[in-house]
From TrEMBL:
GO molecular function: phosphoenolpyruvate-protein phosphotransferase activity
Entry protein name: phosphoenolpyruvate--protein phosphotransferase
Catalysis performed (reactions): L-histidyl-[protein] + phosphoenolpyruvate = N(pros)-phospho-L-histidyl-[protein] + pyruvate
Principal EC category: transferase
EC number: 2.7.3.9
InterPro entries: GAF (IPR003018), GAF-like_dom_sf (IPR029016), PEP-util_enz_mobile_dom (IPR008279), PEP-utilizing_PTS_enzyme (IPR050499), PEP_util_C (IPR000121), Phosphohistidine_dom_sf (IPR036637), PTS_EI-like (IPR006318), PTS_EIN (IPR008731)
Coiled-coil regions, chain positions: none
Cofactor(s) demanded: Mg(2+)
Domain GAF: start-end pairs: 6-152
Superkingdom per UniProt: Bacteria
Protein family (similarity comment): Belongs to the PEP-utilizing enzyme family.
Keyword set, alphabetical order: Cytoplasm, Kinase, Magnesium, Metal-binding, Phosphotransferase system, Sugar transport, Transferase, Transport
Coarse class of the protein's main subcellular location: cytoplasm
Length: 737
């Protein structure tokens, strides 16, 4: 029986073989280590004693340059090169020519493969290609983790090193588990070709099939809707016909690779270039090219790709460049513990769905798809935005402790469930929930919320692949009312446009979409859509109470027109003998500053109001809520916004009309403190914030708070924010924040 061969033995044999094949006197493998240095792991030709002793920094020598630049270097007189660094222990001074290629995997450098010759000679293009091919095989050995055993303690190869990455916290929670790649890397098992003409034919056939499939998609009206999707397909078509790209893959086959080996080689080079690119547009195009290469690989290897969405491992952490909310909903959500994305945004639909499902999520994690393998251990911290890949035992223990602590806190919140939300000085505060999907509904019972203060109806539209029919809408609204029982639910009519784009609706280019044709403006101009939604809502609420609000109202007259549509629908249903809601209460979202100067007229007409502070604050300060450069520039706890919010609360009180605040402000304990200080008694918040805000309110002496804060607002204050004063109050009063 054959002796088991150690990784070191294999590597030693490989360097001898490469040296012989390349007719080189030297062949060496350098592996990138956890500490960012390059270690000589095997050599034929240099002093063997230097193996595992020669270590160089990545900014040092020719080998360092190859690793850093992720590009081959070929020199006939290496010692004359400014980057040449002499290592006496290796005995390399007698070798003049040098060819080094990066060992790349998924665009990441894992090491460097070098051949050297005594004579001054120029390596041919074919030789460079051939060495790159061999480097691909080495990449798999390094990534497999087999070399770890031969590393000195604390100096494992970088390919398997623990990584601590930072991104943007999207959805609260901490998830520990194992990587499930949303679009897994396609494993190429056969790299070296037996029959070159046959491999060329396979590649050509795969490219033809790819082109044909793109053409079919472009012709399919249903798929290639106008707008962004079509643009992507057009770009794909352009790349699929790109002679440079196809030429590079054919050349790679001619160096001895299989068709899939060639696609992967060129893909790896593209990724390495992509990682060095700073221009976001070009990076995006590279991603498109990467996606096309994956399609070719899937075809050539006969793998359908995509994980089995139903049979996930326990504790799955989904890792993706980006994905649609519908794709996330396709997974067995009882097994998903986290989500890590290269893209993603705080207000994106996917984020909203992840939050609703209680899945910890972090976005903006650069190249995460390239850095992990399926099954890798991974931790997602959706509170701090940190991601730990292959965490060391001590880090994992710390997180297990964190999870335990969070669970305990959640238990404490759960214990408050049946207590009325009443401040220490006896003021009742109503806490409602923000919702928008079926998956939100169990939170009503879990939290013991007073009701649903904002049901964002557009979410159903945003996650669907086509306009939901009136019947589908009706079904959802009925389920919401059933789940709420006798607790009130405020449905908001469609708030689409702006950043809320429906993939199947014709996209309209607007210079300032947030200020554009959106929400009620669109509803009034295209009343068919609004009418059918209102009809579905009225039918769903038959025999019960319906509460309805219109988003982005800017003028009293818009409210009048919208209410008129409701009245007409009521008349229509009555005439056709349909059961009607017991009563319909109609209100507005206060989120456009112009309404601040029409409050008296407005409150005379409406039954209730809901303040959308996300939009109101962005419009007050003219600072885009979705633009990280300006979103946090002005503090919503500044006197300008607090005075505006207080004006609304005062007017509502004077008119005897209920007002709720349903923007994100209500979901943060310190901000919620400010809101109750200026007179708000009804807040609508995200389910995860319910416990923390309630716990804070239960400890609050509202009289003392108002006495401390109101004078600051009334006295023409110079302060740019009241945050420090609110914090000081909370600390002094021992409020849990
Ligand atoms: C708001 O603007 O505060 C709001 C609740 O609406 P949305 O976040 O859906 O725009
Ligand atoms: Mg809004």
């Amino acid at each position: 029986m054959a002796e088991p061969v150690s990784a070191q033995d294999r590597l030693d044999k490989i360097v001898v073989l490469i040296a012989a094949n390349m007719v080189a006197e030297v062949c060496s493998v350098y592996v990138l280590r956890v500490d960012g240095t390059l270690e000589l792991y095997a050599t034929e030709g240099l002093n063997r004693t230097a193996v595992h002793l020669t270590v160089m920094r990545i900014d040092e020598g020719l080998v360092g340059t190859v690793a850093r630049e992720a590009e081959p270097i070929s020199l006939s007189n290496a010692q004359a090169h400014p980057a040449f660094s002499y290592r006496p222990e290796t005995g390399e001074e007698i070798y003049h020519s040098f060819l080094g290629v990066p060992i790349l995997r998924a665009g990441n450098t894992l090491g460097v493969l070098v051949v050297q010759n005594r004579a001054h000679r120029s390596y041919t293009e074919e030789e460079i290609e051939a060495l790159q091919t061999t480097a691909m095989v080495l990449a798999e050995i390094i990534a497999s983790g087999e070399l770890t055993a031969m590393a000195l303690p604390g100096a494992e190869p970088a390919a398997r090193r623990p990584l601590h990455l930072s991104g943007l916290a999207l959805s609260e929670g901490i998830g520990l588990g194992h990587v499930v790649l949303h679009e897994p890397r396609i494993e190429v098992t056969k790299v070296i070709a037996d029959d070159l003409p046959a491999e060329l034919a396979r590649l050509d056939h795969a490219v033809d099939t790819l082109r044909a499939s793109i053409d079919i998609m472009l012709e399919d009206e249903g798929v290639a809707r106008v707008g962004e999707h079509r643009d992507i397909l057009e770009t794909y078509r352009m790349f699929a016909h790109d002679r440079g790209w196809i030429g590079r893959m054919r050349e790679a086959v001619l160096t001895g690779l299989t068709a899939e080996g060639a696609v992967e080689r060129v893909q790896s080079d593209t990724r390495a270039r992509m990682l060095r690119m700073t221009d976001p547009y070009l990076r995006e195009r590279m991603h498109d090219l990467d996606d096309l290469a994956n399609r070719l690989l899937r075809q050539l290897t006969g793998r359908a790709g995509g994980p089995d969405t139903l049979r996930l491992p326990e504790n799955a952490i989904i890792v993706a460049r980006n994905m649609s909310p519908a794709a996330l909903l396709d997974y067995d959500r009882t097994r998903i513990r986290g989500l890590v994305l290269e893209e993603g945004a705080a207000t994106s639909h996917l984020t909203i769905v992840a939050r609703a499902l209680g899945i910890a999520a972090v976005g903006h994690v650069e190249n995460i798809v390239g850095l992990v393998d399926s099954g890798d251990a991974i931790i997602v911290d959706g509170v701090s935005g940190e991601v730990q890949v292959r965490p060391p035992a001590d880090v994992e223990t710390a997180y297990v402790e964190k999870v335990r602590f969070r669970a305990k806190r959640l238990e404490q919140y759960a214990a408050l469930r049946d207590l009325p939300t009443r401040t220490r000085d006896g003021v009742e505060i109503e806490l409602h929930l923000n919702a928008g999907l079926l998956v939100d509904l169990p939170h009503i019972d879990e939290t013991g919320a007073t009701g649903i203060g904002l049901f964002r109806t557009e979410l159903q539209f945003m996650i669907a692949s086509a306009f939901p029919r009136t019947n589908e809408q009706l079904k959802l609204y009925r389920s919401v009312l059933d789940a709420a029982g006798d607790r009130p639910v405020v449905f908001r009519t469609l708030d689409i446009g702006g950043d809320k784009v429906l993939p199947y609706m014709r996209a309209i280019e607007e210079e300032n979409p947030a200020l554009g044709w959106r929400a009620i403006r669109l509803g009034l101009d295209r009343p068919g859509l609004l009418r059918s939604q209102i009809r579905a809502l009225l039918k769903a609420a038959a025999g019960r109470e319906l509460r309805l609000i219109f988003p982005m109202v800017s003028a009293v007259e818009e409210f009048d027109r919208a209410r008129h549509i409701v009245e007409r629908e009521l008349t229509h249903l009555r005439r056709h003998g349909h059961a009607l809601p017991e009563r319909a209460l109609i209100g507005v979202m206060l989120e456009v500053p112009a309404l601040l100067f029409q409050l008296d007229q407005l409150f005379e007409r409406i039954d209730f109001a809901s303040v959308g502070s996300n939009d109101l604050v962005q419009f007050l300060y003219a600072a885009d809520r979705g633009n990280p450069r300006v979103a946090d520039r002005f503090d919503p706890l500044g006197p300008a916004s607090l005075r505006a919010l207080k004006l609304i609360a005062d007017k509502a009180m004077a008119h005897g009309k209920p007002v709720t605040l349903c923007g994100e402000l209500a979901s943060k304990p310190l901000e919620a403190l400010a809101l109750v200080a200026i007179g708000y008694r009804k807040l609508s918040l995200s389910p995860a914030s319910y416990g923390p805000v309630k716990a804070m309110l239960l400890e609050l002496d509202l009289g003392a708070l108002a006495a401390a804060i109101t004078p600051l607002l009334e006295s023409g204050t110079e302060l740019s924010t009241l945050r420090p004063q609110l914090k000081a109050f909370a600390e002094m009063a021992g409020l849990p924040l």
